[in-house]
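Dear colleague,

Thank you for sharing your sequence with our group. We've completed the structure prediction you requested, and as agreed, I am returning the results in plain text so they can be pasted directly into your records. Please verify that the sequence below matches your submission; if there's any discrepancy, let me know and we will rerun it promptly.
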Amino acid sequence: MKRIALLALALLLSACGGGGSGGTAAAPPSAPPSMTAVQINLGDDPADRLVAASVTINSMALVSARGGSVAVMSTPRPMEMMRLMGTVAPLAMAGVPQGTYTGVTMTFGASTVTYVDTTTGLPVQRTVPGPMTTTVMFGSPLVVGTTPMVVNLDMDMAASVGIDTMGNVSMTPAMREFHNPAVTGSADPEDGGMHGLTGIVGGVVQVRGLLFLDGGAFRLVAGRIGSA
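Please find the predicted C-alpha cells below.
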C-alpha cells in the first residue's frame, strides 16, 4: 500500500507540472501605439483697449477620452497675441497616440499687458503673475487617426483680460477651438500651412557669393551678396 501511495503522489506531481516548475508563459508585451502628427495653433480675437499682450505658454496637454492626458508641449513658449489678430501661429507640433481627445489643458506663465488709459490716453504696462491654467473642451471630439490634424485655438482677449477702475490687470484665458485635418500644400495656417519661421542663427557662411544662415536643424539661403 505504501508503494501504491507513493506512485499516486508521483503521478499527481507530474500532472501539476512537477510542483510548479512549469508555470504559465508570460504574455508578450503589447505593441506601442501608432503616432500621428498634430499641429496646435494659437490666435486671438482683438480687444480695442489693448495695445500689446505678451503671454508665455508653459505647457500644454491633450485630454484623452480614455482618461489621462498626453503632453504636446513642455518647453515654455512666449507669444505676442495682438499681432495675431485674425490669424493663428503654430504653437506646438507633436506626435500624438492615435485615439480620441476631448479637450486641451494649457498652463500660462506671467504675462505682460499694455493698455490705453482712458483718462490720460497714455499706454500703461502691467504684469500679470502666473501660473494660470485653463482647459478648453472641444465642441466635437478630436479623433486622431492616420491623417495629420490641426487644432486651432482662439484666445478672446476682451474676455480674457480684465482692467479695474484702479488700472489693475487680471487675466483668465478664454479660448475657443476648432480642428480639422491638415491640408497638403495649403498656405493657410489654419490648415497646417506655414505662417512664419522662427529660429536661432548659429553661424553665417559665405559660399560662392551666397549667404547661408546656419541654424543647426536647417540652413537658409538668405540672399546673394556678391557675384557667383
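Summary note from our side: The mean pLDDT is 81.

Kind regards,
the structure core
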